[in-house]
Amino acid sequence: MFKAITVISGKGGVGKSTFSLGLAQFVKDCIIVDADVSAPDLNVILDSKQEKSIFFKPKNLIAEIGPECILCGDCVIACRFKAITKTDDSVFVRPELCTGCELCSHICPVDTIFMKERTGFPVKLSRHKFGKIIYSDPVPGQRISGGLVSFMRALAEKEAEETKKDRILIDASPGKGCHVISAITDSDFTVIITEPSKAAFKDLENSADLLKYFGQSGGVVINKVDLNRNYKNQIEQFSKENNLDFLGSLPYIKGFPGYLNKGILPLEIAERSFNDNMESIFKQINSKLEKQGD
Amino acid sequence: MIKVAVVSGKGGTGKTTVAASLALSSQVSTEVRDADVESPGIADLLTRRKISQDSVLLPVPVVDQDKCVLCRACLGCRFNAIAIVKDQVLIYEDICRNCGLCALLCPTGAISEIKRETGYINRAEGGNISTKTGFMKTGESHPDHVILRVLELLSGEAIQVIDSPPGTSNHLIYIADASDFILIVTEPNKFALHDLELLIKNIRPLKKPMGVILNKSGSEDSMIIDFCQKNNLKILMTIPDSEIIARLNAKGVPLVSELPEYYSEFRKVLEFINNSVNNV
């Protein structure tokens, strides 16, 4: 039976994706889900080969203004998502904003708003050096939702069962809304990536709250720890007080993105302290998962 | 008033760093709005005196079972947030999208709406800068309503800087709609370039004037410079990849406060934005 590890941060740019790549290199033969759905980047670095393309059709409908429109603007005012815009000579629905709630079609005095099915877009399953990756190809005009994350997770679980993989690794988007919630619920362990800065500490507090709210167990990793060693103790202390495992720290590597640019993966950079610390973090996560049992 | 949205595609490129220094370099009355409501932070860099905190409330449907005649009209909910169990209408609050349809459809007035706090707005001010920060409560699924509140309301300031969340999703449309100029902060690596491509695809159709700030500049700049050239994007400013700057960020110190040589550069960016918006 596979186990799912989710990697979150609150703040963007702390090193979530690089951590996920590093962890995947240790886990070997896992299925990565790139759940940063509005900005899926992992496949950019991985030299992967596509195996499957699965069509995702969003459940949400989209409203369409029909030909009898009298430009009264009632729908514009009624829409709670501000998804309808009125100009001098037209009223139109913004596809990225419409949730498909159907309120407008009931409000329209001339009954000319119709609900249509959305076109979908492909979700890809590809193979790379140390496992597989599931990621989406976002299409402009879509409303990106937590539903896509759930869809990708379900795909990963099916693939894990069919190909007998032990681990699913979910790289979440930054933040704490439904995209992240869909990534952490039903996971076996969540890793919060943080960095030693004021802004990141606030987000660490948010992430800890999020895990508590949804009853998830997790741990903390400090990335780029040398940027400000003063925070290390504070973060360790915070972790203890909030029932989170303090998993360890990773060093700041100057020019790190440059290596990724060349397709050199985190462990291949061969920075001793980075690799040693990653290994220790990996072992702790593994032992946590093993203790949980099946 | 000129409204500048500071966006990126990838997180961590330096939106907040740039937005804060942009505001601090302004010599006129400036308002900073933090629309990164899941992870706000710019007000901490600007440390103004807090003046108010106001709730952002969401309408939440509730059922008066006595008025309910079990007509099942409310099952028209498009999100499957309503179920009828043992003749009781149940509304699942965590799935409900607060759209108002069920209350509209109910023929007996059995469904009404009460308010739930989804977040709050903090206001602060000091000197020529005022801030308006949106916070979404933990456990909420959708930041839209808090973002819309942050963007709402007129203000009399000469310049408004809007710090945005990372990503290329729906919320960016709200922010772009509410701006006159879109300032994109990026960095020279493959993740950022990929997200920049997605970002441009999403916001180009909105036809707002745009410009780029290349942050953490170094030996790999050509990937961004080439992209900008091909896509008719002007790079307004370049900030080097410096450990000193990284440490300032970690300490929560604005760039221009410690490195005043950057004031004039940010002022040039503001001037460019001003000219760009006024010439259209």
Walk me through the structure.
The complex is a heterodimer of chains A (294) and B (280). With 294 residues, chain A is α/β, with parallel strands linked by helices. Helices cover 36% and strands 24% of the residues of chain A. Chain A is built from ten helices and 13 strands. Chain A has helices at residues 16-27, 42-45, 74-78, 103-107, 146-163, 178-184, 198-213, 230-241, 256-261, 272-292, and strands at 3-8, 30-35, 49-56, 62-65, 84-86, 91-93, 113-116, 121-128, 131-136, 167-172, 189-194, 218-222, 245-249. In chain A, the strands form three sheets. A nine-stranded mixed beta sheet of chain A has the order 3-8-9-2-10-1-11-12-13, with helices on both faces. In chain A, strands 4-7 form a two-stranded antiparallel sheet. In chain A, a hairpin with a 4-residue loop joins strand 5 (84-86) and strand 6 (91-93). The longest helix of chain A has 21 residues, at 272-292. In chain B, the strands form two sheets. In chain B, strands 3-6-7-2-8-1-9-10-11 form a nine-stranded mixed beta sheet, sandwiched between helices. Chain B has a two-stranded antiparallel ribbon with strand order 4-5. By secondary structure, chain B is of the alpha/beta class. Helix content of chain B is 32%, strand content 30%. Chain B is elongated. In chain B, helix 1 (15-25) packs across helix 10. The two termini of chain B are 14 Å apart. The model of chain B has no long low-confidence stretch (mean pLDDT 94). Chain B is built from ten helices and eleven strands. In chain B, helix 6 links the parallel strand 9 and strand 10 (210-217). At the A-B interface, helix 4, helix 7 and helix 9 of A face helix 3, helix 4, helix 6 and helix 8 of B.
